[in-house]
Amino acid sequence: MLGAIVGVTAVLNASGADVKETWDKMCVKCHGADGKGQTKMGQKLGIRDYTDPKVQAAFTDEEAFKALKEGLKDKDGKTLMKPVEGLSDEDIKGLVQNVRKFKA
């Protein structure tokens, strides 16, 4: 689920620990520390396995960024993921790159 990446290497080098801390705080409950989505909540919501290259190929960075920024809803309008709150665009871009690191 994350956006248009410009200069992310510098962002990650400067705030790699912050990205991990943010992932651990905001994302692990559903997506898991390993990105596989095999948590209780992840299984309930049908979270995709970010270590699967096919899953990674199914969305762009821009789509992932938008999902984090605006949240995700299913076809019936039910909220699947709330928008992230209190994060800058650079923080969100860091999370997108974090998801890309799970690709096997």
What does this structure look like?
With 104 residues, the chain is mostly helical. The protein has a single domain (8-101), classed as Cytochrome Bc1 Complex, Chain D, domain 2, CATH 1.10.760. Helices cover 55% and strands 5% of the residues. It contains six helices and two strands, in the order αααααββα. The chain has helices spanning 8-26, 28-31, 40-45, 53-57, 61-70, 89-101, and strands at residues 72-73, 79-81. Strands 1-2 form a two-stranded antiparallel ribbon. The longest helix is centred in the N-terminal third of the chain and has 19 residues, at 8-26. The chain starts with 7 loop residues before the first helix and ends with a helix. Mean pLDDT is 86; it is low at 1-14.
Summarize the structure.
The protein is mainly alpha-helical. 55% of the residues lie in helices and 5% in strands.
